[in-house]
Amino acid sequence: MTEDINARIRELQERILSKRQQIDFERLNLVNAAQLSDENRESPDIMEEAKNFNDPIENAVDKGEVKSLAKSEKELDELINELNALRKS
What we know:
By secondary structure, the protein is mostly helical. The protein has one domain. The chain is 80% helix and 0% strand. It has 4 helices and no strands. Helix 1 (2-36) packs antiparallel against helix 4. The radius of gyration is 19 Å and the shape is elongated.
C-alpha cells in the first residue's frame, strides 16, 4: 500500500514538473507574441501609446493561447491539490 502511494506521489511530482515547464513555455510564447504583435510595431503617437499602456496581454495575443495557458494553470492546481491530499493520507 505504501509503495503504491509513493509511486503515485512520484508520478504526480513528475507531472507537476512537466506541467510547470509547459506553463513557462506558454507564458514565454505569450510574452513574445505580445512584443512582436503588429500593434506593438506601429509607431502610434504618444497619447495612443499612453492609452494602451495598461491593456491586458489578451488584447495583443490569440485568445486560444490565453485559454490554453489558463487551462494548464488549472490542471497544475489540480495536480498539486491531489499531491497534497496524498501526502496527508
